[in-house]
Structure formats: C-alpha cells, structure tokens
Amino acid sequence: MVRRGIIDTLRRGFDNAIANWQLALIRFVETLIFVFIAIIGVIVAFVPLIVSLGIKLSDVKAPEDLEGVAMTLLDAWMMFVWVFAGALVLMFLFTLVHSFVEAGCASVFVDADRAAGPETGGPRQRYRLFSMRRWLAGAKDGWWKVFWIYNFAWGAGGLVLLIPLIPIAILTYFLREHTGPAVAIGCMGLALVCLFALVVALTTIMWCNRSVTAWAAQRQGIRVALRTGWRAIKSDLGRHVCIALVMIVVSMAISSALSSFTMAGGFGDFHRHVSFSLVTMPIRLLGQVLGAAFSAMVASWYVASYAALAVENQS
C-alpha cells in the first residue's frame, strides 16, 4: 500500500468531486428541499399556535408587551410539547433522506476512485463515473446502514459530551448558595463545554464521513464500518484531521467572500429604505443560493477525499 501525501489525497478528492459534479447538484437540491420543508414546518406549527392564543405581533410595541407574550406562551407549554415532537419527527425524516443521499454519493465516489487507478497524475475524466442508476443503486443498498452509522456516532458523541457537563452541573448545584463561585464556575464551565462540544462535533463528523466511505468500500455491516472508520482515523490521524481542517478553512473563506458580496443588500435595512431593500433582495438571495451550492461542493470534496483514503487502505 502506497501512502499518498495530503496534497495528493486532496487533489484526488477534488478531481473526483468535480468530475462527478452531479453529486454536488444532488446535495444542493437536498439542501433547498430541507430549507423549504423547514420553513413550511415552522409556519404550520407556530402560526396557528400564535393565532389560537390571540397574539398579534402588531400589538407588540414595548418591552412590557414582549413580557406579556412570553407569559402567554408559557401558559400554553403543552402545545410546545407537540411542536417539539413534530420537530423530532421532521429531524428523523431529514436524517433518513440525508442518509439516502450520502449512501449514493459515497458509493459513486469510492467506485470512481477505484476506476481512476492508483496513479497520482492523470486526466480528471478518469474519475467520471456518475449515473443516476449507479447513484440510486448505492443509495438503496446503504441508506439504512448510513442512517444507523449517523445515529450511533452522534449518540456516542452526545455521551462523551456529558463528561465535562455532569461534574460542572453537580458542582454548580452544591455551590448554589454561594452566588459568586456558582456564577464563576457556571460561566467557565459553559465556555469549557462549548469548546469541548466543538471538538466532539468535528471528531464525530470525521468519524461519520470515514465510516460511510468505509461502508462504501467494503459493503459490510454497520459495526464493521464504524470500527473501520474509527481505526483508520486513529492510525492515520494526521491526514484525516488535515483534510477536515482544509474543508473548514475553505468553507470559511467562501462564506466570508459571499458575505462581502451580499453586504450591499443590508444597507437598505440599515437606512430603513424599504425600496432599496427590495431592489437588493435578489443579490441577497443569490448570495444564499451560491453559499448553498459551494457548501454542497465542499461536502462532496470532503467525502471524495475520505473515499480516496478508504480505497487506498484496500489496495
């Protein structure tokens, strides 16, 4: 087995993602559908709730009015239980759909990397392997496995997050009669938990992506994929972390560039010129669409790079 450098691995992933650009388009459409369903869900869930409680946004003109609205909503806490249950169902459906999409994409990326051969150089067209039939076959074969890979990995991440959270909560509880120390420990603990949660989230995302590509390369069970993905990250931590960091930096750079592009759309709100806001609205919408499109391409590059590692480990 020949270990490629980080640059060569990223180049293979990039060429694979560009050659099979249709997979990024599928991710982009998935994002648009999710946003549309989420907006409709919020409207369907909250608008009838607000109307049934007799709340009128036009009557909210002072902080005291906000307090009255908050008390009215708190009195109807049972309705929020149903809203929360609906949100869980919606999240469950989102995860199922994303698992279907991810299984198909990972299958195509792994097959394309194999078809390209082990050579570092070569034309990008050697990765071109996408077809809707191939993507659907991989999605149908692995969506349920990928769904449980996500559930097990994020469940484990949530349990790990309890490591600093539980002792901080217990210590804050015992110091509840001493306001100063309790507040200090609570604030420092919250900062520590947030930092720890960021590390856990990044690690879990790495584990998920690597396990999904391991499944696509081996087509074995869920436990094998999770075990293989975790073992691969531990044995080759440098390349896995560097690839993840490159994706984060690229995503932040694209986000910053698009924010600068759409900044002009906010001047209308700043000066309270409604007409100007309407004129610049297409610019802001275009920025949002471009952001979703670039995010889909970066996500494809990420999975394709891990697919290169998965195929490399089998060669």
Shape: globular
Fraction of helical residues: over 70%
Radius of gyration: 24 Å
Mean pLDDT: 84
Strand coverage percent = under 5%
Low-confidence stretches: 268-274
Work out the count of structural domains.
1
Q: Can you put this structure into words, describing what you see?
A:
This protein is mostly helical and about 325 residues long. It has one domain. About 85% of the residues lie in helices and about 0% in strands. The chain has ten helices and no strands.
Attribute tags:
single chain, 315 residues, mainly alpha, 0% strand, 10 helices, globular, 85% helix
Structure at a glance:
85% of the residues lie in helices and 0% in strands. It has helices at 6-19, 21-52, 63-75, 77-116, 132-174, 179-218, 222-235, 237-262, 267-270, 274-314. The chain has 10 helices and no strands.
Outline the fold blueprint.
Blueprint: H1 6-19, H2 21-52, H3 63-75, H4 77-116, H5 132-174, H6 179-218, H7 222-235, H8 237-262, H9 267-270, H10 274-314
Helix pairs in contact: 1-2, 1-10, 2-4, 2-10, 4-5, 4-6, 4-10, 5-6, 5-7, 6-7, 6-10, 7-8, 8-10
